[in-house]
Design brief:
Elements lengths: L1 H52 L6 H9 L2 H14 L4 H27 L9 H24 L3 H5 L2 H7 L2 H10 L17 H7 L6 H30 L14 H12 L12 H35 L10 E7 L3 H14 L6 E7 L5 H9 L4 E5 L5 H6 L7 E5 L7 H18 L5 E5 L21 E4 H14 L3 H10 L4 H6 L4 H4 L5 E6 L9 H12 L2 E9 L4 E6 L12 E6 L2 H9 L2 H4 L22 H12 L19 E3 L2 E3 L24 H4 E2 L4 H4 L5 E6 L9 H8 L12 E5 L1 H11 L5 E5 L5 H6 L7 E6 L13 H12 L31 E5 L21 H10 L3 E3 L6 H7 L1 H11 L5 H10 L9 H8 L3 E6 L2 H4 L7 H12 L2 E8 L9 E5 L12 E6 L10
Parallel strand pairs: 1-2, 1-4, 2-3, 4-5, 5-6, 13-16, 14-15, 14-17, 15-16, 17-18, 18-19
Antiparallel strand pairs: 7-10, 8-9, 8-10, 11-12, 20-23, 21-22, 21-23
Helix pairs in contact: 1-8, 3-5, 4-5, 5-8, 9-10, 10-11, 10-12, 13-32, 17-27, 21-37, 32-33
Length: 1027
């Protein structure tokens, strides 16, 4: 055929295939542009004519809407668009079918290449018919895409459209002429760019790395095949304008070889292009191909190597400590954990951290692991798989830490997933210590049922709902307590913010106190807690907060905070101190009466070689001490100087008779730790605006709850339990009013219906009318709680309802009175639930995102420079206004280093619950059952309580220097009250009379008349204002 036509005939033959494609493309482009111009001109002219005829401007718009409403076309195009976007099953089948047919058409192109020799242009009829059928289907698909396209011009210039323009018409020309030309059919290789999308439809690629790898492979392969096809075309046909022709015979494989050599910058030179078109193409292809090849190879190698490295096994080295962290492994959780873990380790990382994630890390998380590669390693796997546990050496790990997603919209699913991880670990490696984070306290019931779970060996549960709601509940009773405990146990306080509002800045310096545990000296055996506490403060400059008393044959123990005088310390007693460093605490361990009684400088108390220490007392005597501490005998207790000035306290028939308490009204639950009542029907607890009880409501606790019928439960039971602890006298219990959606409160009511003095009010804290109805102006404290309802991309909007409610409550506060500062805090009874009279309502707001404190903080001076978000959070936390979930993240690392700290914190926040009690509750199936065991009631109630007390005349009388050290000793000697913090007014200007927390003030810190003391008060003290 070539000989018949000659060169000119061959050129005309090629043009016969190219011209139809160009004609369709250019003709369609011109038609679209002309149609757009005509429509614009027609609309403009029609609008002008209509406006002249119709002077009423509003009459134009109905006509315009009528002209543009072609509903059936819109519906049809919408359905086609949904189908083409693979949102339906038929659409996915259609997209996959089109891709497969494109691959088939490309295969036909390769088959034709193998048969092409010496410009042979004959083509097998069977293959021609198949290719024509394929392209007929492509033409139909092109029409559907054209109908569904909103922007026709943009669609006309798309890459897939260009491929169809230059591949579909030549096939129909071939069928008409019964001749074929390879031409631009290689452009079908560009359809390989749809490969990643198809693999996702088929669920072959699911994770980030497989999707990325498939995209890189598709781009590289399509570029390679398309470039090789173009070079094959121009080199075998030559430049059209050159006579005689400068073509050369190159096979498609040689063209692929040439493209690969060019992209890799090797350039052997054995195969080169000769035509001008080929060389021009190579000039631009070298630039793009070099960039593509240079980026492609390293990324592919990195992906493959990283995937293989994440599947490797950890080599256990004898003597090297390491932990395994699994569960919610994300960028935020890993970053927060590493910061807290390194903070506890003081930068000296002696423990390697192995992260076991169920999905490959993102690029940002991978960067974190690379920055911390010296002590962190990531492994791809699941804690539910034995082989993955074996790869990370779970059996030899110091502990396994399981992270929870606190912001999960399905907390039950999140908790059960982590509990299943615990079950898998304990079944395969029963001796491995597990520290678990869970969200809801009700899910703790599953853990004691797991074989080999034992809290005595260090297995621990960090329940966010229990601790968070306990913190907020205690803040309602003792304003600022959550901040104080956070500073002591977690260390989230910003010292710069604190010093900003302190008058005696030189007395604070840069001392950060924290809770540290250590064994007490054997010389303290036989002494009472108050005697040891005073000696530690005066002699060792330490504040002793509590002790751990062991008893029983199974190694049981209990934590006692400021126990009664009937408790006698024995050898090897664990003490909980508030100190700056472990070196200071060791003084209490090294103290010797014979060697250190005359030493005045605490720093000189070191380990001595004295052999005069007391010998260990028998175990039976230890058990006797504990039993005596919990049993109130008939008659009067032993007298001591600590209780010499206490008001009358009587014990009748084994009952603990506290002054002012009506024993007939005291009903406790089966454990004796909580006030109990018969189940109250919801309708009886539901208040309305007409109820007389609501009108007379005073000095109550208002709880604003945001939740609906579908939101996860907050767990209000964890909020109520600390407020109904049995160590409070019944008349000290404040009414609690829950303000929120009735649909949500109904779901919570069944868990709290057996606690006394609870009320419900259907409404919202966003309504001033509802707040006024529940007497917010006369409440003792207000707490604002929220549930995780929806996932928002903007963290600032997560706490929108809580922030608006806080501002709403503040707007309804009474204006500051002109009363003297001494009346800012007034007490009617010395106890945790004393009746404060603040100039403003103490509001504690739960925040999901701590930076949102900037929206409710009012502690900084507006005229000064605007502080950053960290300082805004610290300032709001310093005043006790907010509590964020992020404050509890550090507990995981703290518990790993010392699980006693978590036990002490739970004792303080939850009013004495411990793992042993929780097992007892599970055996009884519920705490909400009545018990008549008065002896157990007395034993359970005889525990101290937290309080915020003002400076009284009795405490100030006889004080030498009016310092914190003097007040501490007098409170301890006179009343057995243990002071451990201050709540001080901020410096002026302070129109809102905000206060800030000072944890463990220095002994020589001068006291101010307006200072309030954070104290641990014995249960059997109930006095009046003349304390």
């Amino acid at each position: 055929m070539i000989e018949k036509f000659g060169f000119t005939g061959a050129l005309y033959f090629q043009l016969a295939f190219i011209v139809p494609s160009l004609f369709i493309f250019l003709g369609g482009l011109f038609t679209i542009l002309a149609f757009r111009l005509a429509r614009y001109a027609y609309g403009f002219i029609l609008e002008q004519i209509w406006r002249k005829k119709v002077k009423n401007k509003d009459a134009w718009w109905p006509y315009q809407r009528k002209q543009s409403s072609v509903y059936w076309i819109r519906i049809f195009s919408t359905q086609v668009e949904m189908m083409l976007s693979a949102q339906t099953s038929m659409g996915r089948v259609l997209v996959i079918l089109v891709f497969l047919l494109n691959i088939g058409s490309l295969v036909i192109y390769f088959v034709d290449l193998t048969e092409r020799q010496d410009f042979k242009i004959s083509f097998p009829d069977s293959i021609l018919f198949i290719d024509t059928g394929f392209n007929a289907f492509f033409l139909l698909y092109f029409g559907l895409r054209l109908v569904a396209a909103d922007d026709k011009l943009r669609f006309w210039l798309e890459l897939n459209s260009l491929v169809d323009f230059f591949t579909i018409p030549p096939v129909f020309v071939s069928y008409y002429l019964k001749k074929n030309w390879l031409g631009l059919r290689f452009l079908r290789a560009l359809r390989l760019l749809e490969l990643p999308r198809i693999l996702q439809f088929l669920r072959i690629t699911k994770n980030n790395y497989s999707i990325k790898l498939s995209k890189l492979f598709a781009v590289f392969l399509s570029t390679w095949l398309t470039a090789a096809g173009f070079i094959h075309l121009v080199e075998n046909n030559g430049d059209p304008w050159v006579h005689p022709g400068n073509s050369q015979s190159l096979s498609y494989f040689e063209c692929m070889y040439l493209v690969m050599v060019t992209m890799s910058t090797v350039g052997y030179g054995d195969v080169v292009v000769q035509t001008a078109l080929g060389r021009t193409f190579i000039i631009f292809f070298i630039i793009g191909g070099l960039v593509l090849f240079a980026n492609f190879i390293p990324e592919v190698v990195e992906i493959i190597e990283s995937h293989r490295s994440y599947k490797s096994s950890y080599e256990v080295v004898s003597g090297k400590k390491y932990i395994v962290v699994c569960g919610n492994i994300t960028l935020e959780s890993v970053t927060a954990f590493l910061q807290d873990f390194l903070l506890q380790d003081k930068g000296n990382v002696c423990t390697e951290i192995l992260f076991l994630g169920e999905s490959l890390p993102s690029l940002e998380l991978e960067a974190v692991f690379k920055c911390c590669s010296a002590y962190t390693t990531f492994f791809y796997g699941s804690a539910l798989n034995f082989e993955d546990l074996k790869r990370v050496g779970m059996g030899s790990a110091s502990a396994c830490l399981i992270l929870a997603d606190v912001n999960s919209l399905q907390p039950y699913t999140e908790d059960t997933s982590n509990i299943m991880r615990v079950l898998s670990i304990k079944n395969n490696y029963p001796n491995t210590r597990v520290i678990l984070q869970i969200i809801q306290s009700c899910n703790k019931a599953y853990l004691p049922n797991i074989p080999n779970w034992d809290w005595r060996t260090g297995d621990s549960i960090i329940c966010f709902a229990e601790l968070k709601l306990g913190f907020i509940a205690q803040s309602c009773l003792v304003p600022g307590l959550s901040t104080l405990l956070t500073n002591l146990f977690i260390g989230k306080e910003n010292s710069e913010t604190k010093r900003k509002y302190v008058e005696n800045k030189m007395l604070l310096k840069d001392e950060d106190y924290k809770v540290i545990t250590f064994q007490l000296s054997s010389d303290f055996a036989g002494m009472t807690f108050i005697e040891v506490c005073r000696l530690c403060f005066v002699k060792l400059n330490l504040v002793l907060l509590g002790i751990e008393l062991k008893f029983g044959s199974q190694g049981e123990s209990t934590i006692l905070i400021n126990p009664s005088v009937q408790i006698k310390l024995h050898r090897n007693t664990m003490g909980f101190f508030i100190a700056r460093s472990l070196a200071e605490v060791k003084r209490a361990h090294f103290y010797c009466k014979a060697c250190h009684s005359d030493i005045e400088d605490p720093e000189q108390i070191k380990k001595c070689q004295c052999k005069g220490r007391l010998h260990s007392k028998p175990f039976s005597e230890k058990l006797k001490f504990y039993q005596e501490s919990l049993r109130i005998s008939d008659g009067h207790p032993a007298k001591s100087r600590s209780f010499g000035v206490l008001p009358p306290l009587s014990f009748v028939d084994g009952d603990l008779d506290v002054q002012g308490e009506d024993n007939s009204r005291v009903i406790l639950d089966s454990t004796g730790r909580f006030h109990w009542c018969d189940s109250v029907p919801l309708q009886e607890a539901l208040l309305s605006c007409k109820d007389e009880a609501l009108l007379n409501l005073q000095n109550h606790i208002l709880v604003c709850v945001f939740g609906d019928a579908n939101s996860p439960l907050i767990g209000l039971q964890d909020f109520v339990m600390p407020l109904r602890a049995s160590n409070f006298i019944y008349h000290e219990l404040k009414d609690i009013v829950f303000l929120g959606s009735l649909e949500y409160l109904q779901r919570e009511w069944k868990f709290i219906q057996n606690f006394p003095k609870l009320w419900l009010f259907s409404g919202s804290a966003l309504s001033c009318a509802d707040l006024r109805a529940v007497n917010v102006q006369h409440c003792a404290a207000c707490a604002i709680l929220s549930s995780n309802t929806t996932a928002l991309s903007n963290p600032s909007l997560v706490d929108a309802e809580s922030i608006l409610a806080t501002l709403n409550v503040r707007s309804m506060q009474r204006k500051p009175s002109s009363s003297p500062l001494e009346t800012v805090f007034r007490t009617r009874a010395l106890g945790n639930q004393s009746e404060p009279c603040y100039k403003r309502i103490p509001v504690t707001t739960e925040l999901k995102s701590s930076p949102n404190a900037q929206f409710i903080n009012q502690a900084f001076d507006i005229s000064s420079e605007i502080p950053d978000q960290d300082q805004l959070f610290s300032t709001a936390a310093c005043t006790g206004d907010i509590f964020s979930d992020s404050c509890l993240n550090s507990l995981l690392s703290i518990t790993y280093y010392n699980h006693h700290i978590l036990a002490l914190l739970q004792t303080l926040v939850t009013s004495g619950t411990n793992p042993a009690l929780e097992e007892q509750l599970l055996e009884k199936d519920s705490i909400l059952s009545r018990s008549s065991d008065k002896m157990m009631h007395n034993a359970s109630r005889a525990r101290s309580k937290l309080a915020l007390l003002p400076l009284s005349k009795r405490l100030l009388t006889g004080a030498m220097e009016n310092s914190f050290g003097d007040i501490y000793c007098r409170a301890l000697d006179l009343f057995g009250i243990l002071c451990f913090g201050l709540y001080r007014l901020m410096e002026e200007p302070n129109p809102c009379k905000n206060r800030f927390v000072i944890a463990r003030p220095r002994s020589d810190l001068k006291m101010l008349p307006t200072d309030l003391l954070f104290c641990v008060v014995p249960f059997n003290i109930a006095t009046t204002d003349d304390l």
